[in-house]
Amino acid sequence: MRSGSPRWRRLLSTASPPPLLVGVAAVALAAFTWRIGRPAFWLDEVATVQDASKPLPELLAFLRQRDAGLGPYYLAMHVWLRFGEAEWWARLPSALAMVVAVVAATDVARRHAGQWAGLLAGFLLVLSPAATRYAHEARPYAFAIAFAVLAVWVLDHLDGRRRWWAVYSGTVALLGLSHVVGLVTLVAHPLFVWASGDRRFGRWLVAAGVGVLPPAVVGWFAFQARSTVAWIPKPDLERVRLAFAEIVGGWEYLTLLGALAVVAVVRTRDRWTAGLVVWFAVPPLLLALVGLVTPLFLARYLVVCTPALVLLAATAVRAPWQVAAGVVAAAVVAATVIAWPEHQRLRLPYGHGPDYRAAARAIAADCTGGVAGRHSLAAVRTMPYYVEREGCELPWLSGAVPAHVDRIWVVQWDWDRSEPTPGPGATVFRMVDDVTVPGLRLTLWRR
């Protein structure tokens, strides 16, 4: 059947939401689960698996001391990880959450700009390298993205009935419990309430306030343990500029979405698009201001803003179906060409960082008595985790070398040009092997 036939045209213009949403969900699920287990864990993912797997009393005590802000996620993963700790399994909840985000964004765009806009929003979010990265990460960011979009989806359905306000409060609570920084997106919500035709801002304020209460409690405990994020540098203009590119998946992808967003803003100039602009642009600036006072400004904390630019870009196809179809096709092709190299890289064994699996195999091949590893930043948690998974019980030294140790593995970043050393008091050791894997350099020293 020709795409220009009257029957096909009627189908696209009158199809009920489920066929479009089901189709987009299927594409998103396939994309976000493709090679989900291939990249090795990076440091924070290992922290998720190791900390969330602690016995419940030990986990609760741990959360009181550090990472309280991730408490709800860790508690949920505590249950999930009882059924396995493989990379694909630990990341699967994030992939499913990102599918929800894609479907919700598709429906929001469809309601405001038609079926073609919904289709484009879904594909642009699926193709975003940032969306794939956090769909493939055993951390809470995909959940924060999903609840950020769902909160706007709920605002889109306001009809004055209490149940929708209650649902909104619950969604805001889940957004903040996923990642408390995600609440900064609420700055755009008054504009969405206004755009919905329900101008009872007092009711919105009450509903949002109720939703903020649970994450505010978690946030208070997290603030008490803020020393755990003391390493985050203060933001400057360059960091803020780079953050806008990172949260959508790179400068090229930002340029594509930005160009479509400009078209949408120029053509529509309504409260809805104003809300999307605020959702994307204002939270990074607000978080940068907070980051000048307390360490908090990280680009990955702001991925909750990614759907805003996607929705703005999709709104650009609000046009007669013949024009919209061409714009969607061109935009999807351009997005695919731009994003494909990064999608391939993200799915390599070193897509999330160094290839710790390959490094662990090299170390485990010489896992006999008298061998140890030297503790370093490059070997924190992740290297011991994978070495242990290879069946090697390797002690990791942070001080002087015990007398019974005659071989030491030293792990460095591959960009670290400093000379490797087996550690203090180890002048009697000489280097006998040098192994390089993506992201890491391993040297073996023998007494």
UniProtKB/TrEMBL annotation:
Residues 76-196 form the Glycosyltransferase RgtA/B/C/D-like domain. The keyword DNA-binding does not apply. Coiled coil: none annotated. It is a multi-pass membrane protein. GO terms for molecular function: pentosyltransferase activity. The keyword NADP does not apply. InterPro entries: LipidA_mod_glycosyltrf_83 (IPR050297), RgtA/B/C-like (IPR038731). Keywords: Cell membrane, Glycosyltransferase, Membrane, Transferase, Transmembrane, Transmembrane helix. It is found in: Cell membrane. GO terms for biological process: lipopolysaccharide biosynthetic process; response to iron(III) ion. The chain crosses the membrane at residues 116-135, 141-158, 165-192, 204-223, 244-266, 272-290, 323-340. GO terms for cellular component: plasma membrane. This is Mannosyltransferase. The lineage of its organism: Bacteria, Bacillati, Actinomycetota, Actinomycetes, Propionibacteriales.
